[in-house]
Each structure stands twice: as C-alpha cells, then as structure tokens.
Amino acid sequence: MPRAVVLAVSAALMTLLSACGGAAGTGGTTTPGGPVVYDDAARVTAVGTLIGQDLDPYKAGGQVEGIIDVYDTLIRPANDLSLQPGLATEWAWSPDNLKLTLTLRSGVTFSDGTPFDSAAVVASLNRARSGETSTQKASLASISDVAAEGATKVVITVKQPSPALLSVLASPAGMVINPKLVGDDNAIRTGAGGLGTGPYTVERFQPTTQIVLTKRADYWDAASIPHAPRTFTYLYGQDGNARLNGLKSGQYQAVQATGTPGLNGPGALSTTNKQFTTIRTPSFPMMSIVFAYTAPFDNPLVRQAVAHAINFDALSPVLTDQMNCTSRRPVQLPQQGQVGFDPDAKPLAYDVDRAKQLLAQAGFPDGKGLPPITVTSSTASNDIVAAQAFQAELAKIGMQLSINSQPSRVFQVAQLTSGKAQMATLNATNGAGIDPSLGYNTGVLATPQYVDDSPAGRQYKDLISQAGVNPDSGARTKLYQQAESLATQNAFYIPFCQLNNGYATTAKLGGFNDNFWMKYIGALKVSALTVAK
Prior knowledge:
By secondary structure, the protein is of the alpha+beta class. Helix content is 27%, strand content 21%. Strand 5 (88-93) and strand 6 (99-104) form a beta hairpin.
C-alpha cells in the first residue's frame, strides 16, 4: 500500500491585488507613487440566475451565491485545483487508506457564537450523507462511519480507498452547519441566524429572488479579507438586456455573463468602455457530442466519421462568441490541474475524406441508407449554436440531422433514453468538481451511460473504476489517460467546448483571480472581492 499522505499546512493570507487599474480582474487603481486605495465599506449588488429555493448546502442546487460565504468547507478548494486548509488544518490517510483523520481548526465559531468542534463536523457529515433531502449522498457514499476523536479530530472510515473524498470535502458536501440547527431543516432552508462559520451572515433571503449578506467582524480568518465588501446583494435577473442596462447605469456592479448580450465579439462592452471589464474563467463543464447507442451510432465507424467530419478549428470563433466557449477546444474530459490530464492528448483529425470512407465501410456510402438522426440541444446553454454548426458540417458527408431543442440537460437526457434523439450536445461531466472521478460517475457513467457495452466500452469502464479507488495519483493519471485514449479512438464522446463562467463588472470591482467557485459553478466569492475608491 502507498504510504499515507499527510498534509500539514497553516492557513495562508490571501494575496491582495495591487495591480494598476484597467487590468481585468484587479479592481484597483493606484495613486501616483502610492498603494491601491480600497473602499472597505462598499456595498456590492450583483444580478444573475444563481438563486435557488433555500440555503441548505446539501440540497442547494442553483443556490450557490450566499452559501459559499455563509459556510466554510472543511478543505478549501483553490483556483489552481489544489486543496488547502480550511476548517481542517491537516488531514492524513491511514496506511490501508480506509481511515481519514482530520485535525480541526481551533478558535472558530459559528456566526451566533456557537463553538466549532468535532461534534459539529460529525453532525453535518452524517446529515449530508444520510439526510432525507440531501443531494450529496452519492458523493459521500463511500463513507461507512464518521466519529469524533476528542474535540479537534474527526475520523472518517470508508468502505474502500476513496481518493476523491478530499475533493468532496472541498465542495458543498464539506460545508459545516451549526449543530444547533442540524435538526431544523426549515431554519437551514430559510437562512436562520448562526448557519455557518463563514465570513458573512444572511441579512435577508427571499427564495429565487434575492439574498443580502453582511460581513462578520469576528470571522476567524478576517485578516485575510480586510477589503471585502461590507454588504453584498444578489438579485435574480434573467433578462440579459436589463442586466446590461443596470450595469451601465450603476444599479449593479456585476452581472452574470451567461445570457447577457454585448459582452463578446466586435464592439464588446469592455473594449468600447474602459469603465467595465468582463471576467471569464474556464469552468469544469465539458460540452461534448454524445450518442445513444442505437442505429447508426451503435457502429463505432459512424461515430468516428462524425469526429473526423467536423472542422472544430473553423467553428471556434462561432462557439467562442455565441456559446462563450474557451478559444481552445478541449480534447479530453480532465482539465489541466486535474488528475488524469494528458498534455499530449490529441483528437481524431479533421478529415472529410476519411469520414466518408468510414461511413462507406459502415454500409452508408455518401450517407445513403442512414436512418433519421435527431440531435438534441439545450436552450439553457445556447448549444443549439453548436448543433446547427454540426448539422452543416455533417451534411458534407451525407449525414442529415434534425435538431430537437430542449430547455435543459435533464430533458436532453430524456430524449436520448426514450429514443427520440440519437445524438446530443451536452455537458458530459455534469459539472462535477476537482477530482475527475466525480465527473465520470455523475456524468459519463450515470444514466444513460455515454459509453457502449463493447469490449472497448467495458475496458473503459474498468479503467475508470480502477482509477476511482487507486490511492496513488500517478497510477490514477495513467488509468484515466488510457480510458480517454479509448474514448477518443472509439468516439464514445467528442468534447468540443469548455464553457467560460464569468461576470461583466465595473472596473473598480476586483478579486476574481483566485476564485475557485467561479470555475466550479460560476459564483462570485464575495469575501474575495475588493472595491477600489
């Protein structure tokens, strides 16, 4: 067995941004020969769609604005995908990798003054992994027991080696709720006082409408966020034009970029008006072409023909401007910084002649004899743009597509499983977090599986399964790389877009350079923000 990994590091102060004004994400200006001057009493208002029905971190769904500043996680996720001390200062696996011991931070209180200790962690984790309303059960399914060892240590026992657990504890599943409220679902849902140990408290919460946060003066890590806004208001707003007008008028200091017009391409707001900037952060979701394994896509030659027939490089400007994709097409599901990322990975090359040859070998010369093919896309992520582009590309090899647009991923999956669609453009990894096994298990190998049951498909699943329980990161990387190579050669799925999350903001608003949560779900980490005077 690999020796236990022990991480023992003290909390580091967050780096204060001191770059000159005008640089995207700094939010600061310098006086001649002097430092940046911040407004520590600032009130920031943002608008977007990340407001859900409640403030329960274990079933928040879209409600991330708020919970990431009301609660702390046991382990802090960093923007570079590393794991840093949070409420736990140290963690270590036992030699058999079946027990994880967390050493907890002393001197921390919930916002109502309740002390933070091991009992609070045990109560929260047990609620997260077995509570009736918890959506975190699958992420914590490997846990068989959680026990306190004195006031400052917690021992988590797992059924099998679970290297992804550390990443899970850096997600909402690792947020700790005030033990006084653990049995009161209504108080947690509505934002009662004393919810978490985080840097902000809930002043007002109206489900799906608004949340107002106030900065805590007694936060345990207050020294690291001296310039964070005093209050923060997040309003629900789906109308992109109204968001843009509110930003320009000064009503809002930040607006969610997705769905807001005028931020990309020629004449974009940040290029025509230096009072504003647009923050773009590559996110976890990997938009991919996926298939229902019915005719004609039960034949790998047909899937490979699709991969060869689409000129992704030529489509990049369209996908970047209209879908908010990164300019560089992803060719694998793990991204840089994750276990399993292969810097040398390459896709099947664009080659129309090769695509036609493959179709002919499959029995469909020039597309003749192909059954009707429907591709389902989502209006929520605007990937109908991709579906239309692929429709035109595949027509060149005689493959005719009809497009069935659906409001969200859930409906797209239903189209595939019901046989109403044979292809889809969707987020294959379902937006999971730092450890790639989370994405494979909640996306690719969920229901339906985007891998067939051929020998290659079974080998792929076996490699993913092995990687999920192997405690050695080097071995895991090799296993994931082998699986991704199989996926590419068999065209199980075809990644084409890593979405950008982001906001358009006033140039005075900064603090975006170290925001993991923007990458994770497109949320503003309020305590990281700064406002220049």
